[in-house]
């Protein structure tokens, strides 16, 4: 199992996912982390977009909108990683963004 979960909470954010998820998938080292989208009951076909374009992204589906804090807390409960990084769905990241964080955690 990989040591890091990068969890992105989403609710009807298909437009934001289209804009920002590509950088997260491309920039995240697949050897150390899984990218996971926790979907808060979206009705805008966000899940279809992810499945069609990023099959490597794991999806946690909630039947309804649990809100920000509860959505993240429930997603964390459903995963079992050494480290969890919560990332908003409107964040772009550069390649190699995660390694310094991971290295710091492992060495301190």
* Mean model confidence by pLDDT: 97
> Widest sheet: strand order?
3-2-1-4
- What is the molecular shape? globular
Note the total helix count: 4
Could you give the count of β-strands?
Answer: 4
| Helix and strand run | EHEHEHEH
Structural class per helix/strand content? Answer: alpha/beta
> Biggest β-sheet, characterized?
4 strands, parallel
> What percent strand?
15-25%
Instruction: Detail the poorly predicted runs.
Output: none
The first-to-last residue Cα distance is: 21 Å
Q: Care to describe what's here?
A:
With 108 residues, the protein is an alpha/beta fold. 39% of the residues lie in helices and 23% in strands. The chain is built from four helices and four strands. Strands 3-2-1-4 form a four-stranded parallel β-sheet, sandwiched between helices. Strand 1, helix 1 and strand 2 form a beta-alpha-beta unit. Helix 1 runs parallel beside helix 2. The chain is globular, with a radius of gyration of 13 Å. The relative contact order is 0.28. The mean pLDDT is 97.
What is the element layout, followed by pairings?
Elements: E1 4-10, H1 14-27, E2 33-40, H2 46-53, E3 58-62, H3 68-77, E4 83-87, H4 98-107
Parallel strand pairs: 1-2, 1-4, 2-3
Supply the key terms:
39% helix, alpha/beta, 4-stranded parallel β-sheet, 23% strand
Condensed summary:
With 108 residues, the chain is α/β, with parallel strands linked by helices.
